[in-house]
Design a protein that fits this description.
The complex is a heterodimer of chains A (113) and B (112). Chain A is mainly β and 113 residues long. Chain A has strands at 4-7, 10-13, 19-25, 31-38, 42-51, 54-57, 64-66, 76-78, 87-94, 103-104, 108-112. Chain B is built from no helices and 12 strands. Classes of the chains: A mainly beta (113), B mainly beta (112).
């Protein structure tokens, strides 16, 4: 009963490095999304996907890329990390978009030096 | 655009006290409204939801009523427990059903 699995749980990067945050779900959910959580700002939507091969931008997409080649996986890529991307990142999935309950992973804590 | 404004924290209450966390929203159309809870070191969990005006969501003793006339969705609990200590987020799903907007979160600490 895995639900939404995020890896890694913690990561430290240097400015300019690239990295992929992994997200996988085993519930056959069509909708998947990525959020960043910053102190005093709640969670903000980065990118989302309504199905394999379909992605779109959320509220704060700059500096991040996504792809959705399978229903199960939705990786988030940082092409050139910046200190402003230091945050906790959450992946979520649901059966039918955001009007349905979202299932969240446990998060990835990312620090950019 | 759509947005959620949530009561600032942190909130500290004694066990068995009454809890209210205020939440108001701005949205076009008829959004669905949610409360999520985040325990330390964990992801968010759905606490309750309401999908139309005057709906009342409830779970684990928590309640919230969707008030369209005041664009509010305040969270209440009659008697809090130490185990309720967490961060609570109000959120809305926009008209497209593709975008989610969270409030800034309210940290609740319940002391014995």
């Amino acid at each position: 009963n895995a639900g939404v699995t995020q890896t890694p749980k913690f990561q430290v990067l240097k400015t300019g490095q690239s990295m992929t945050l992994q997200c996988a779900q085993d519930m056959n959910h069509e909708y998947m999304s990525w959020y960043r959580q910053d102190p005093g700002m709640g969670l903000r939507l980065i990118h989302y996907s309504v199905g394999a091969g379909i992605t779109d931008q959320g509220e704060v997409p700059n500096g991040y890329n996504v792809s959705r080649s399978t229903t199960e996986d939705f990786p988030l890529r940082l092409l050139s990390a910046a200190p402003s991307q230091t945050s906790v990142y959450f992946c979520a999935s649901s059966y039918g978009g955001t009007s349905q309950p979202q299932h969240f992973g446990d998060g990835t804590r990312l620090s950019i030096l | 655009g759509d947005s959620v404004t949530q009561m600032e924290g942190p909130v500290t209450l004694s066990e068995e006290a009454f809890l209210t966390i205020n939440c108001t929203y701005t949205a076009t159309g008829y959004p669905s409204l949610f409360w999520y809870v985040q325990y330390p070191g964990e992801g968010l969990q759905l606490l309750l939801k309401a999908t139309k005006a005057d709906d009342k969501g409830s779970n684990k003793g928590f309640e919230a009523t969707y008030r369209k006339e005041t664009t509010s969705f305040h969270l209440e609990k009659g008697s809090v427990q130490v185990s309720d200590s967490a961060v609570y987020f109000c959120a809305l799903s926009d008209n497209t059903g593709n975008q989610f907007y969270f409030g800034t979160g309210t940290s609740l600490t319940v002391i014995p």
